[in-house]
Every structure is written in structure tokens, then in C-alpha cells.
Hints:
With 210 residues, the chain is α+β, with helices and mostly antiparallel strands. The chain is 22% helix and 20% strand. Residues 1-7 and 200-210 have low confidence and may be disordered.
Amino acid sequence: xxxxxxxxxxxxxxxxxxxxxxxxxxRRENAKYGASMVVIPKEQWPPSGGKVEPVRVFRSxxxxxxxxxxxxxxxxxxxxxxxxxxxxRWRDGITWDELMQVKRQCGYGNAWAVEIFPPDxxxxxxxxxxxxxxxxxxxxFAWRKTTPRCFNCEETTGPLMCVTKGxxxxxxxxxxxxxxxxxxxxRLCEQCFGAFHCRGEFIPDxxxxx
Length: 210
């Protein structure tokens, strides 16, 4: 029949039509957004599919990012807002530059983040998503390009501590500083860390907690 949908191997015509309809709905939704990530209201959140609900969800015409606070860590789960018609999954192939862009647009441009590659026996691969874990301090093996500065006083001497809004909500001064500048993480020198009454031990950037 002319114009009939050809079902990929292993998928029936009805399933193919449903996937095409889903793709078309997604394309219409994508057209409502611009190139930059924005926070979307909770009623528009997709099902998380896990035991932990996201604290925020971001959207652009190209990407979806769900922000989780899990086991004391901030996780950014990122996928393309586009379906792969051959697999029925999210389209794969998110580049390093795209991950950096999403991380920045979600307010974590000042924070260090890592991606985990587990042993073969621990691999969990249920969706074409990338997961960035925001860490409070720079890994000791991290490469640096610029001299770190305190976000508040811009001091470059002495150790710095990275404070994230998600994992440290009770920071009277630091929290308002992040709100004022529209960021989710800042680096503070030890003096400003104490002045803002940050709770917890001051761990210099690049060191590990004992």
C-alpha cells in the first residue's frame, strides 16, 4: 500500500504507529522551548521511573535534565528530547560539549561533576541517558585551566570549598548569594565559609573528607 508505515524488524505496524505518534507529540512539545534549559512545573514532569523523585526538571528544545538529590549527592540525569525510531529509545550520542552546556544552563557552571563508568558486573543500562554527579570539591586528579577564586571576596590565595545549593539548603548567607546570582554552586574561601555560617567541615577544594 502506498504510503504505508514499514515496521522495523521485531515491531508490529500498531507499535510503529504508536511510536510515530509519540515522536510527533514530542516534536510539538520541543517547539515550545528555546535552546536554553529552563525549569518546568511539576505537572509537566515525566515519570521518573525510580525510587527517588527529582527535585527539579529542566527542559530545552533539545534536552531533558532531571536533578536528583540522592545519598547526599546531586545527580543530573540528561537525555535528548528526541526518539530513535529504530530502537524506540531516546536518541543516543550526547557529546561532551553538550553535557557541559546542559550542566552550565542548569546552574552548575561553577561546580565540578563526574560521570561514573562501573565495572562490567555493575552496569545498569535501561535508557540512553547520561548521569553527571556534582561533587563538593575538585577531584585531586582534575586538570585546571584558571586560578580558583572565592565567589564572595574573589581571593585567590588559600584553599576553597565548593558549596552546592542542593545538598546544603541551610546556608543563610551562601544560599542567598546563589539565589542573587542565579547559580547552584559557589566556591568560598575558609573565611567566607565561616562568615556565612556554613554547616559541616571545611574541606579544601581538591582534598577528600577523612
